[in-house]
Write a structure and sequence with these properties.
This protein has eight helices and no strands. By secondary structure, the chain is mainly α.
Length: about 170
């Protein structure tokens, strides 16, 4: 009964958020979501490694280790839960983007964004608010675009923060 109630709430919240983007130009949301594709993380890591002598090298190594841990776990969770994406499951709904894979839980974009934001916050505390706001917006964008439920984003957030914390405990 509890799971059914949580699923209904999750679906209702998804619809309320997704409806904000129906019949609207979503280019800015798509652009925001694309900043979570991974290229930006690599560029930030390489720039810090090359030009920031205090923490840049350790930042890069921590991020590489974290992503090496996060990616297989993310894939395993997707295959384990096999939750269909809202755009593939809900009636009369078309996503604003083509999903990168078949399953919804957890949100990989959100996990990666919160992982990066957590590592940025650790090594560069003055960027904490910016990093966490950006990560939260990445998660929100995935719901607005119709490819994730809110609970997928919560799970991705938890995954990203957990793996970042583990990596920072080892290398930080």
């Amino acid at each position: 009964m509890l799971i059914k109630s949580l699923t209904k709430y999750d679906t209702d919240l998804f619809y309320r958020l997704y409806k904000l983007t129906q019949k609207r130009d979503c280019r800015s949301i798509i652009w925001l979501s694309k900043t979570g594709d991974g290229y930006l993380y690599f560029a930030i890591g390489m720039l810090l490694w090359a030009f920031e002598p205090e923490h840049g090298e350790l930042f890069l190594y921590t991020a590489l280790m974290a992503y090496a841990l996060e990616l297989p776990l993310y894939v395993m969770l997707k295959k384990m839960f096999k939750r269909p994406r809202p755009c593939d499951f809900l009636i009369n709904l078309t996503a604003h983007v083509t999903p990168s894979d078949k399953f919804s839980l957890p949100s990989g974009h959100t996990a990666a964004a919160w992982l990066m934001a957590s590592i940025v916050a650790y090594y560069y505390p003055s960027f904490t608010l910016l990093a966490y706001c950006w990560a939260a917006l990445i998660g929100l964008s995935r719901v607005l675009l119709g490819v994730h439920y809110p609970s997928d984003v919560v799970a991705g957030t938890f995954l990203g923060i957990t793996i970042a914390s583990l990596s920072l405990a080892i290398l930080g």
